Amino acid sequence: MGQPDGALPQVVYPDTEILSRRRWRHSQVLADHFWSRFIREYLPGLQTRQKWQASPPELLEKAVVLMVDPQLPRALWPIGHVTRVHRSNDGCIRSADVNIKGHVYTRPVARLVMLPALPSGEDDESPTPNLPD
């Protein structure tokens, strides 16, 4: 996210491999640009804030969601799937149980960002990817 990742070992190139070092740096810059634009432009667009203008799509069970955690950067928000929704007396969904890596969390709908569904083609022979547990 704009800074070197300390978890990855830094590669030291000999002076004869200047071209390889330049390509590696360029690939790192491209990856940094991608992630910064993804976090700045795409993620905020998934959570609509148009109050009282239109009803947002209803949160369904088995929907894949991103759980908002103000203590973490957006890139580290956990992803899980909804196991149960809780309706209020007026019939609106106010909270949901989210399963993330075997742990179930109950969170308000305002703190959940529903991710777009993966396209599923009837004629597509490729297996569907595994969703997070």
Automatic annotation (TrEMBL):
A Pfam family this chain is assigned to = DUF5641
Mind telling me which InterPro entries this protein's record contains?
DUF5641 (IPR040676)
DUF5641 domain segment(s): 22-115
* PANTHER family on file: PHD-TYPE DOMAIN-CONTAINING PROTEIN (PTHR47331), PTHR47331:SF2
Name this polypeptide is given: DUF5641 domain-containing protein
